[in-house]
């Protein structure tokens, strides 16, 4: 991809983020995007069919990057690789950290997507991606057996929802914490019971 082509796509992406935040995705038009990015409509249509194609391609790019990061080396990951030699990580710590760094580096776009004017489907895509990675990790490395009488579907939802809630709160707080701090929170939250969480609120 040429530098000029990359620069044009970056302009379009920045304009999309701005317009999602100010108008909402459904209200914005291709004309809004081309006007804000100071390109002509012909240039836009060289890259994208319409605003939906633009959003889909950008989401797909983010989704593919996150899938690669979260799944990286997951088959060869071993118990001794776990952070602090414990068993609470349900995805390798380094993978979670690197995914959070990616999100932080593209914070404007991710925040626009997951904000009130963005695309609710992206959150669901993110959940499905995490579900896919957790299942893969579980198949490779976690001892089988469930004596808690909780259906697997509910167990998976509890794990995924916890991670998504933490990431969503981080975004709402405008990325106040560092990616490493959030990775630590996700890791620590796996070993704290709801009763312990309530006690922490009273400290």
Overview of the molecule:
Helix content is 68%, strand content 0%. The chain has helices spanning 3-22, 30-37, 41-47, 51-71, 93-105, 107-114, 120-141, 152-172, 179-189, 194-201. Helix 1 (3-22) packs parallel to helix 6, helix 4 packs parallel to helix 7 (120-141) and helix 8 (152-172) packs antiparallel against helix 9. Mean pLDDT is 85; it is low at 83-87.
Please describe the topology of this protein.
Blueprint: H1 3-22, H2 30-37, H3 41-47, H4 51-71, H5 93-105, H6 107-114, H7 120-141, H8 152-172, H9 179-189, H10 194-201
Helix pairs in contact: 1-2, 1-6, 4-5, 4-7, 5-9, 7-8, 8-9
Outline of this structure?
With 203 residues, the chain is mainly α. It has helices at 3-22, 30-37, 41-47, 51-71, 93-105, 107-114, 120-141, 152-172, 179-189, 194-201.
Oligomeric assembly: single chain
- Structural class label: mainly alpha
Strand content: under 5%
Overall spatial form: elongated
Helix content range of the residues, please?
A: 55-70%
Helix-strand topology string: HHHHHHHHHH
Rg from Cα: 20 Å
Secondary structure tally, helices: 10
The overall pLDDT average reads 85
**Low-confidence parts:** 83-87
Instruction: Report the end-to-end length measured between terminal Cα atoms.
Output: 54 Å
Number of strands: 0
Q: In this structure, how is the largest beta sheet organized?
A: none
Characteristics:
single chain; 203 residues; mainly alpha; 0% strand; 10 helices
């Amino acid at each position: 991809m040429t530098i000029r082509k990359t620069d044009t796509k970056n302009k379009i992406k920045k304009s999309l983020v701005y317009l999602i935040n100010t108008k909402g995705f459904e209200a914005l038009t291709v004309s809004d995007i081309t006007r804000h990015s100071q390109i002509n409509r012909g240039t836009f249509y060289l890259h994208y069919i319409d605003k939906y194609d633009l959003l889909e391609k950008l989401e797909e790019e983010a989704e593919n990057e996150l899938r690669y990061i979260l799944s990286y080396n997951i088959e060869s990951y071993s118990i001794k690789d776990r952070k602090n030699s414990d068993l609470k990580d349900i995805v390798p710590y380094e993978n979670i950290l690197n995914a959070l760094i990616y999100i932080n580096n593209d914070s404007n776009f991710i925040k626009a997507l997951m904000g009130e004017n963005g695309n609710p489907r992206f959150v669901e895509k993110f959940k499905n991606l995490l579900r896919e990675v957790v299942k893969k990790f579980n198949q490779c490395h976690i001892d089988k057996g469930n004596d808690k009488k909780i259906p697997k579907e509910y167990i998976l939802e509890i794990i995924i929802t916890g991670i998504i809630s933490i990431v969503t709160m981080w975004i709402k707080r405008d990325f106040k914490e560092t990616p490493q701090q959030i990775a630590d929170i996700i890791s620590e939250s796996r070993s704290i019971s709801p009763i312990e969480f309530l006690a922490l609120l009273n400290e």
